[in-house]
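hiii, so i know i said id send this last week but things got crazy w the move. better late than never?? heres the sequnce for the chain we talked about at the cafe, plus the structure i predicted for it. fair warning i was half asleep when i ran it
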Amino acid sequence: MKNAQLKTLSIHEVQLDKENPRIKQYLEFYTEINSEMLALALSDSSNGDASTTYRSLKESIKVSGGIIHPIVVNQNEDGSYTVIEGNTRLQIYKEFHENDTEGNWETIPCLVYQRLSSEEKHEIRLQSHLVGPREWDPYSKAKYLYELSEIERLPMNRIIDMCGGGKTEIQKAIDAYIDMERFYRPYCKSRGFDFSTREFSKFREYQNGTVKQSLLNKGFDSKQFAAWVAEGNVDIAQKVRILPKVLKSDEATNAFKKKNLTEAEKVLNANELVNADLSQYPYETLSKALYQKFLDFKFSEIMALAKDDAYAEKRYALESLKEQLDFIINEVKDKE
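okay and structure toks below
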């Protein structure tokens, strides 16, 4: 990476980056893009808390009288400046200046690089937003990874070097993005539904091999999964892991198609309790038995839960138990 210089630049000299992956999804449908559209996109990303975060950052900068960390800027061959990292902070400065907010918003601290290559720009974005403290939402991350891999044709090992992580996780994120664009977006458009990037986590869970194979075994495909997501049948991302089990039970499958995975899970749980005949035991007895069972938990089992898609159902069962236990214990503590 080239050396950078710390400079103070006029906000009028520095242009917002129209290629910013976090906002690109909002801008690619327009032929002409102005500063107002960029500002709207920056303050309203696919993350449900994005607008709140934007307002909080704006208030923090106002109270502090400026930013602590300089924005990262590239000086182009024609001498102009474009933001590589810090679009939101620059836009906030521009808004403060335009609205005559008290303070000095005419200039902004910048870490200036000279004529960065495309790959060097990618490195900065990846380090700042995929593994850094200011992460993009999962859909935007996947979109960027897709563009690096499938459009710019960067080798996978180079992408891994730049952003860390494993090949499998990166590929699953890319595949989830592809499924959303290939199947979910067209379905939403054909039915008049809003395309929601917040559904990305459901498509990410769907990339587990056992889940996809379970659909194929029953004559379903990715297009059908996208329809289930759009229609609300897949109501919680975490529950995608139980789809193989749901599809093995006609009763649970019917509950899933009529309502959602949460209702299908209730059917499965009820059937399991009946078959195992555990309902006669008090919860403290079952808790003690589980405690003893977990005392003997082996490291190999932990690794399987972490890495093996075939263990997705077991991991989901543990996470569901923890969620319910946390709820009960917190309620008890609140009443003490």
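btw The first strand starts at residue 5 and ends at 10. thought thatd interest u
miss u guys!!
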